[in-house]
Amino acid sequence: MKKVYATRKIENIEYWRDYAKENNLFDLCWNEREENLSQAELYSVAKGNDALITMLCDNIDADFLKENNHLLAISNYAVGHNNLDKKAAQTYSIPLGNTPDVLTHATAECALTLLLMLSRRTQEAIANVKEGQWKTWEPLQFNGFDLRERTIGIIGDGRIGQAFAKMAENLWQAKVLYYPYKDRGASEEQFFGECDVISLHCPLNEKSEGLIDSHFIDRMEKPFYFINTARGACHKEDDLLDGLRKGKILGIGLDVTDPEPMQANSPLLKEESTVILPHIGSATKKTRQEMTKLCMKNIEAALTNKSMPHSI
Ligand code: DGY
């Protein structure tokens, strides 16, 4: 029987191990430790297996794929796939899969959470209560930013960007402008001139890497909230901090950082107007269970010489 290895324990994996065994599909094993495999361990498990379920923090680069070109399938436990070398996988005819759609709502909801936490200053307010500072009802304290009818700039108009746009339109009658603005009827002047919020939903690639830098921030005419639930390498953290300190940025909400994990001494963590989450965009039980199912279906298809339902 073919052998499949998941580099971390994922939701419902025991169920899928039993399912695969009962249906004579494959033997499924996984890393039981609550930490990632080292690169050496990754090479070693790949040697003894036919297919892998990888995490977004596993570095599946050209060297790895060359050395492990016996692999029959790799399914990433994520929609993003910047950790996989697609070209090398093609060279060695290794099918790659991912987990789109099922995490769209959860990730858009995470962007929404970040924006609400910033605009209503919830972190500061919670700290105030916890620290015993709440004396009375205050007319002037923690007054936030009204999101109603604001303009939201969305970078990346795929499934997640569109889901977030719909949430903003329904909740606050937001006006949504997309970037790149060309095909969407919004001009460059409009995008940089009107947006109150910029939310990133694009894949990490050569176009988006470092996109939100001091040049981008300087072009924004109004102070804005910056939200990133896509990939940390799309923004430059020093430039964000500088923009915040200069008042160009009203608040920074990050579910993804560069590097990950964010260093505990990052100056962004000391600022009041930042909310940093540990990459939990897709982290609901149901979403993660669905992601497991998609990975299993991808692997099952590849191991029976069919195309993956969600191939990259
Ligand atoms: C993804 O899927 O790419 C998210 O970043 C993690 O679920």
How are the SSEs ordered, and which strands pair?
Blueprint: E1 3-6, H1 13-22, E2 27-30, H2 39-47, E3 51-54, H3 62-67, E4 73-76, H4 86-91, E5 96-97, H5 104-119, H6 122-130, E6 151-155, H7 159-172, E7 175-179, H8 188-194, E8 197-200, H9 214-219, E9 224-228, H10 237-245, E10 249-254, E11 274-276, H11 285-303
Parallel strand pairs: 1-2, 1-3, 3-4, 4-5, 6-7, 6-8, 8-9, 9-10, 10-11
Helix pairs in contact: 5-7
The structure holds (2R)-2,3-dihydroxypropanoic acid.
The CATH topology name of the largest domain reads: Rossmann fold
Bound molecules: (2R)-2,3-dihydroxypropanoic acid
Largest sheet: 6 strands, parallel
Whole-number count of domains: 2
Q: Based on the structure given, which CATH architecture of the largest domain is correct? A: 3-Layer(aba) Sandwich
CATH superfamily of the largest domain: NAD(P)-binding Rossmann-like Domain
Per DSSP E runs of 2 or more residues, the count of β-strands stands at 11
Q: What is the helix/strand order?
A: EHEHEHEHEHHEHEHEHEHEEH
Using the alpha-carbon principal axes, give the shape: elongated
Rg of Cα set: 22 Å
**Which range does the strand content fall in?**
5-15%
C-alpha end-to-end distance:
26 Å
Q: How is this structure best described in words?
A:
It is a single chain. The chain is α/β, with parallel strands linked by helices and 312 residues long. The protein has 2 domains: 3-100 and 284-303, NAD(P)-binding Rossmann-like Domain (Rossmann fold), CATH 3.40.50.720; 104-276, NAD(P)-binding Rossmann-like Domain (Rossmann fold). Helices cover 36% and strands 15% of the residues. It contains 11 helices and 11 strands. It has helices at 13-22, 39-47, 62-67, 86-91, 104-119, 122-130, 159-172, 188-194, 214-219, 237-245, 285-303; strands spanning 3-6, 27-30, 51-54, 73-76, 96-97, 151-155, 175-179, 197-200, 224-228, 249-254, 274-276. Strands 7-6-8-9-10-11 form a 6-stranded parallel beta sheet, with helices on both faces. Helix 5 (104-119) packs across helix 7 (159-172). The radius of gyration is 22 Å and the shape is elongated. The model has no long low-confidence stretch (mean pLDDT 97). The structure holds (2R)-2,3-dihydroxypropanoic acid. Residues 56, 78-80, 103, 281-282 line the site of (2R)-2,3-dihydroxypropanoic acid.
